[in-house]
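Data availability (excerpt). The following record was deposited with the supplementary files.
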Amino acid sequence: MDYGTADGPGALRRERLRTARLYFVCDAMPHGEDPEPLLRSALDGGVDMIQLREKSGDDRLIERAASTFRRLADAYSVPFMINDDPELVERFGADGVHVGQDDMAISEVREIVGREALVGISTHSPEQLEAAIAAGGVDYLSTGPIWETPTKEGRPATGLDYISFAAKTTALPFFAIGGIDTGNVEEVLQAGARRLCVVRAIRDSDDPAATAASLRRAFASVGDEVAPGG
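Predicted structure:
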C-alpha cells in the first residue's frame, strides 16, 4: 500500500484484513432485535470481520448499533466496517468503510477517511474489478453476487466464473459474496475464493456460531484455513 504508516493503526487493520476469511454483514436490528447476541455468536463461530449495514437512515439506531459493533470488534480483535458513508468512520470509531459502485469515488472516500482507515468496494463484473484496481486507494474488494440474493435485489448473478477471474487478476484481498451458505461454500472456494462475505447464512441461521464454524471448516478443502483470531 502507498498509504498508512508502518506503526499507525492502519498497519494493524491491514494485518487483520490480510488474515480475515469470514466477513459478516449485519443490519442494526437483525430480525428487529438487539444485534449483540447474533454478533457474539457469529464471532464465537469464527467470523473475523464485521460490517454494519443499515439502510433505514435512522441516525439514532445506527449510532446505538455502531457502539455495539465497535465494542465487540475490540473484544474479538476484528475490523469493524461501516457501509456506504465515509463520514461515519470517524464519528463511530470504525476501522473503515465499504462503498458501492454508485457511491462517491474512491479518491473522495480516501480524502474523508484518511490514510489509516480501510476502504473496500463492491464489484460486479471484470470491468469494475479492473477499474477499482487501476484507480488505487482500496484495501479490498467484494466480488459478486455469485448467486441472486434478496440482499442485492435486482442485481444479476455473476456466477462462479467471476470468482475465478478475480483470483487470477488481483493480489488485493477479495471477498466472494452473494448467496453463499454451508451447502455451496466449497464450490466458491474451489473457484478460487479465499475469503467469504455472508449476510443471510449467519443472520438467518438457528445456530449462527455453528454456521460460522462450518463455513470456516470449509477452507480445509482448499488448504487455506486461518484460525479464528489470526
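Summary of structural features: Residues 29 and 35 are 6 Å apart (CA to CA).
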